[in-house]
Structure formats: C-alpha cells, structure tokens
Amino acid sequence: MSNPTLGLVGVGKIARDQHLPSIAETGRFDLAALVSPEGVTLPGVPTFRSQAEMLAALPDLDAVAICTPPGVRHGLTVEALRAGKHALIEKPPAATVSELHDLAGEAERAGRTLFTAWHSQFNPAVDATRALLAGGGIRSVAVTWREDVRRWHPGQDWIFAAGGFGVFDPGINALSILTRILPVPVFVQAAELLVPENRDTPIEARLDFRPASGAVSGPVTAHFDFLQLGEQTWSIVVEMADGRRLDLTRGGASLAVDGVVTVAEPDTEYRRIYRHFRDLIDRGVSDVDATPLHLIADAYSVGRRRSVAAFDW
C-alpha cells in the first residue's frame, strides 16, 4: 500500500524541530507540500502561500498536518475536511472548546480522520504511569511545568495575545498527561492567573483540582511558569497511599519509582504521533480529546486574574 500524501500547514519552530524530522523518519507519509506565508522552502517539496492554494493545486492530496498558531486552526481544519482531507492538528487543537466540538462534527460528516495530537501523551513513560495509577490509592499529585518562553517561543507575540494561551500553551501539555494517567476526572477548583500588564494571557498560573472520586485522597495541584531560566522543569510527582513516590519527568519521557528509573527513552513522541495518525487513517476512525482544553477554559472561568510586571522579549 502506498503512503498517504501529506501537506504541512505552517512551518514554524515546532514544525521544523519535530514534524518534518518525524515525517521523514517514520516513513508513514509522503510529504507533498508546505504551506508557508513566509515562503519557507524544502528541496523537492513545493511551497504554497496558503492552504487554499495548496488544495487547489493538489486535489488528490490525502492529509494535512496543521501547525499554525491556534487562533486560525478551526478555519483551516474545516477547509481541509470539506476538501476531503484527513487532518492532524498540533496542540492546542483549537482556540476554544466550541471550535473543537465543531471540528469533530465536521470530520464525522466528511467521513475523514481528525486527530488532536496531544504530543505529550505519546511519551513512553505516560502509559507506564497510567498503569501504575489504574487502581487508585493516590495520596497527592503535583504538576510542575516551568520553562523559558524566550527559548521555546522567541519573539512569538501571538502566544501572549488573546487566544494564544500564554503559559497554558506548554501547561496544556501537562494537563494532557494528567488527564491521561489519572483513573478519574479532575475539576478545576481554583486558579491564580498572573498576566503581564502589557499582555493578554498568563505568564504564570497555579491551579488546584478536585478529583471526581476517592481515587485521590489529597491535593492535586499544578504550577506553570514561563520565566524559568537554566534547567527546564516538566514533572509530575505522585505520592501513593502505600508510600511509593512516582516521578514522571522530562515531559513524560522518564519515570522513576522511589528513585529507581523504570522507563527512560529518547524523545520519540512525534514519531509515535505520525504512526498513530497513519493507523487512524487506515482504520477510518478519529481521535479527538477535548479534556485538556476544557480544563484551561475552566481555569479562566474560576480563576483569579492578577496583573504583574510587563513582559518584553
């Protein structure tokens, strides 16, 4: 069976760092086109200035991977689905929960695969942690996601504009893992959102969650910070009722139980994403998870907003 052809829509940092190498290394798709308003090029691959231009020029294209800022993903995904293309959407898959629910309906009506690619869920230690927590007996969970916005999003003003998510752009990765590993749902009970006086979205956030049942007896918290210098911190610490401590670190790539590393693999999350996308297409199904986006919306609903010092690059 020949590989599906794929158009990569948006060729920013994440597309260059992860999507392009993963498409090449997994060999599950044939990269047929790039969409880049800035005119980014790749030898042997045509570049178009808009998705509409690509779809008109390549009517037999099978799929798209949408890697633009979240504010325009809904319109682009609708356009692709209605043109008969399967769609992978980089996280967060839409600017709002309503948009994502609409996309799920569009995919069903089009009979095409829609995949919300929460890449952190595809880290190797995530499923191992999920299995350990399946029976409950959890005393507490502490999420710490602290990174340097200047390193990972240099000069990208969209991330601090309305609809750009701010520190929730990386923080939603942590929430995608949290909702994957816990055996019960959690609800945002309180939140503190620290927003620079010259920006629209938070640069730091603290969340308190209420678990849905007795599977977790103590606190579930999250701290997201966009001003971390030096070593970056992407960790979830779980204290079990039987005294064990689980450290899920490196964004979900490593798991230690009582200080003993049980899972530690290289960064392969995006490779797993493209293998999963191909499998979904072959099976004719979608994979749409709105839960992390719901939690962000809930944090804004119940959160207390506090203005802090201006942020400039």
Describe this protein's structure:
This protein is α/β, with parallel strands linked by helices and 313 residues long. It is built from nine helices and 15 strands. The chain has helices at 13-26, 51-57, 73-82, 97-110, 124-133, 149-152, 168-181, 269-283, 291-302; strands at 5-9, 30-35, 47-48, 63-66, 86-90, 114-117, 138-146, 186-196, 204-211, 220-225, 233-240, 245-249, 254-257, 260-264, 304-308. The strands form two sheets. A nine-stranded mixed beta sheet has the order 14-13-12-11-7-10-9-8-15. A six-stranded parallel beta sheet has the order 3-2-1-4-5-6, sandwiched between helices. The model has no long low-confidence stretch (mean pLDDT 96).
Average pLDDT for all residues? 96
Number of helices, where a helix is a run of at least 4 consecutive DSSP H or I residues: 9
Separation, N- and C-terminal Cα atoms: 48 Å
As laid out across the biggest beta sheet, the strand order is: 14-13-12-11-7-10-9-8-15
Helix content: 25-40%
The major pleated sheet works out as: 9 strands, mixed
> Which segments are poorly predicted (pLDDT under 50) over 5 or more consecutive residues?
none
Specify the structural class.
Answer: alpha/beta
Name the overall outline.
globular
Q: For the CA atoms, what is the radius of gyration?
A: 20 Å
Question: Which H/E pattern describes the elements?
Answer: EHEEHEHEHEHEHHEEEEEEEHHE
Strand content: 25-35%
Total beta strand runs: 15
